[in-house]
Structures are given as structure tokens and as C-alpha cells.
């Protein structure tokens, strides 16, 4: 398993627009707004891991590069865009949203360190144990959500080597380097995938996926998705909302993962993004499919109808979609087109948005909804390759590492205090940082730079920004607690954030007291590194040895570990023996 490679699906076959494709198709027209939904929350998108077997795309008005085709001249295209006027019907319906909706785009990061272990750090509003002992033999188990103001290691009863993580509203999921899926958080409607109604404060293995070798996961508010290395898509969670949320054609809940067949037979899925009420996926050939609630045209099929099975977005058929992210009531995608500059033709990623245009989240300069994918004209000069969506926010990442945002400004989530949000703006404070990943929560943003530094901004409630307080930030601010952690991946939930950091030893010289008993080191209290967590402990707290230690030169042999890790490792061995 290779950690976080660049997308490689459809390798060697670039797509371009044929002469029969009119410009008006790309930039579309506005539609009228319709019904609204109350409490909503949206989430996440993810990236492909490796090339899949080639699949023949559906026929359309577009042609593949190895056939005769015509491409855009950059200067004439830009002129046509500037002179274009989109028309939309007026709307009498006022949309009221009380959602706390996250939406993340969790793509590959700067680090490609295959051999190092990955630790998950979390901050913001997280789930904790609130069990109370009522008698000598009675324990009342419950959970509570608490605010964590700075990044802290995710507590786990098992030794996890995290490869990918994603966050929902009240639950999260991670994938290990072995392709196993663990979920934790508040259970509701089956979104944890364990077949039970119990909350899980610690990551718990989804046993039904243990034989599938999963690459990536995505978390919505009510459901969860997973993509395997074979290109299969599994979904599970609460499917009783009559919108086809799980993509199986029926409005029933699935408490354990179920593979989506039907329209996806013969196709290999590369990555998936979960919104609150809808889901979008990309195949290895760059085809875009959506399903779920079609309110505001969020599915991109030219209407507002809900769809209970994956359906290809026909207006992008024949083009290669390279990234997609779902908000609550809007969707954004990066689509590759061929642009002619002088005598050469180059591929360039253009930003398309559709769905609810309220709060200017679509970037088209108005609040009108779009029923089909529409290119953001003001950003036509940029080459995008990553995208993330928040509640009323869209954030794009260019191939040169620049970040552009559009949408609501209420908490400073645009990252540019001078912007009114009506048109896309550049996040100027991090122009020179070379960003490699972007992620959005409900009202906050996190980015990861090529130097493995994390910057956050937007709403600070619950400590979701990781700066040790609950203050809002209107400009990107470095998360100091992660400065030396070699961050490899980030993800945002509704009001919390997660990061995968490279597992490192802690130098004894950097620590003056035992990490377990907190007693100061001295002549009789010597320092010892735990071969599992890497922290420095005294000899009394590292008196035992265990196999399978994460940092051991030979995992098959026993090495000195701290008492806490000894119990975790023994539990892991016992669990393996039972299974």
C-alpha cells in the first residue's frame, strides 16, 4: 500500500471538448430555487489511490484525445466567458438552514512515507466516555461530547496504523495501512457499520469489511461510504429519509456495509464524497455519478428529483472529473479540459459548481441555484486539482498550491477579511506556503502545506481550530501544537478536526518527566522509550515487554513498552486469537 499518491485513474487518456460542445453548456444558466429542508449536515470527499482497469465511457458529444477533436483557445474562451450572461427565474421561496454541516475534501497529502506508522490526532468537539459506577459490580455506560482545544492523540484500545481518516457530524472513520476500516462516535441508524446501536468512544473494526482491503472512506451525517482497492463502493447507515441516500434503490437502513451494484456494475470507483442528503462518486475513467436528494439541483441532472441509485451526470459525460466534494445543498467538482495556449495544448482543471446558490457559495456572482454543473467563470485562469465544501462555503486548491474561497463570511471562513464573499477570493496569507490539501467543516477550514504544517481559520467554537481557545480566526493561523508532528493528512468534521501524523520517537532530552507517572527523571529514575508509543517513561513504568510494538525493529520479538501500551498490545493479540 502506497501512502497518499497522486490520482492516477484513467492514466494516459486525456479528454477534451469536441467542436459540437457549445460554451453555453459549460457555463450553464441559473435555475429557480425550490423547497428547503431543516436541520442538515454535509460532508466529505476523497481521492483515488491507484489506477483501475480501463472502462469504456458512455457515448456523448465529447471525444477522447486519441480521436480528432477541437479544444478551447484560452483567449477566445475567456472572452466568451466574460461576455456571457446567465439568466435565472426569480424565487419566492426563502431558504432557512439551521444545519451544522461539515464537508471535507480529503485528498492525498504532501507526505508519502510508506514505512512510518500513522497516529491520529483530534481536536474540537469529540466523544468521550462518561461511564459511572453505581455499585460494586454495576457500571452505567454512557458517552458525552467534550471540547478539546488543542490536538491530542486519538485514544484507542488497539494499535492502529492510520492511512486515511474522514469525519462526519458525530462520527468518524479511518483506514489502516492494511486496508481495515475502523469507525467511532455516536451511533445512529447504522452509520458506524457494526450492526449494533451502541456508541463507540474508541475506533472499532468493521468486521464485515475485513476481507475487502479498503482504500478510502467518507462520512456523511447519516451514512458512511468506503471504496475498496478493487473499485467497489460500499455504503451503510440511515436510509429511511426517502431520498435514496445509500444508493441501493430502497429507503431502508443498512447497519453493516453493503456493496452498490446496478449502475456501477463493470465500473471501478476511484473516490467518493458524502453530503448530508446526497453522495457523489468518480470512476477511474473520470465519470461522475450522484444519488440522493435532488433539492436545489444538487445532483446535477438538470432537475430537482431525488435518485435512489447512482446516475451519471450526463452534462459532464465524456469529460474527466478529477475531484468532487459535497456540501449540504451544493456540489463542486474539478473537471479536466484541454486549453490551447499559443501553439500547444495543455490539460487544465476547471471548477464547476451547482445546487443552491445562497450565500454566493457557488461562486457565480449571484445567489441563483444551478441545476447542472456550471463552470465558475471568474476562476477560468486557474488550474484546480482539489476542492472542498462547507455549509455555505466552497474552497478550491490550485496545482500551484494557492487556495481560493467563496461563500459566507460570517465566521471569517473565507480566510480573507477584505472579501464580501460575493465573488471568489484568494486566501492571501498562505500564498507562499504551497498548500497540498484542503478540508472544510461546517464553518471552518483546514489546510496542509508541503512542509507538513497545518493552518486553520473560521469558526473557533469547541476548539475546532486547534489553537487552545474558542476564538474565530479570519485569516489562516498555524496550529502550533502540530508544528513538529510531520502531518500527512487532515480531515474536518462539523465542529472538530483530525490529522494523521507520522509516528516518531520522543527524545529523552526533550522530556524532563515520565509520560506515565509524571515523576521527574533523576539519578535513580532513568529514561526509557516505549517501543510502541515512542514516549519517554521511567523504568518502573516500562518494566514489561510485548510483541507487535509499532516502533520495534522486529515486531515478532518482544520489546520494552510502557504499561498502557502493554495492555493495548495484549488486547490486540487476544482479539486476533479470538477471531
TrEMBL record:
What keywords were assigned to this record? Metal-binding, Repeat, Zinc, Zinc-finger
Extent of Low complexity compositional bias: 97-109
Map out region (Disordered) in residue numbers. Answer: 95-115
Fetch the SMART domains from UniProt.
Answer: FYVE
The ranges of the RCC repeats are 179-230, 231-285, 286-337, 349-400, 401-451, 452-503
Q: Which SUPFAM superfamilies match?
A: FYVE/PHD zinc finger (SSF57903), RCC1/BLIP-II (SSF50985)
Question: What residues does the FYVE-type domain cover?
Answer: 508-570
Q: Give GO MF terms, alphabetically.
A: zinc ion binding
- Pfam families of this UniProt entry? FYVE, WD40_RLD
Superkingdom of the source species? Eukaryota
- Could you tell me what this protein is called? Os01g0964800 protein
Where does this protein come from, organism-wise?
Oryza sativa subsp. japonica
Q: Which lineage do the record's taxonomy fields give for this organism?
A: Eukaryota, Viridiplantae, Streptophyta, Embryophyta, Tracheophyta
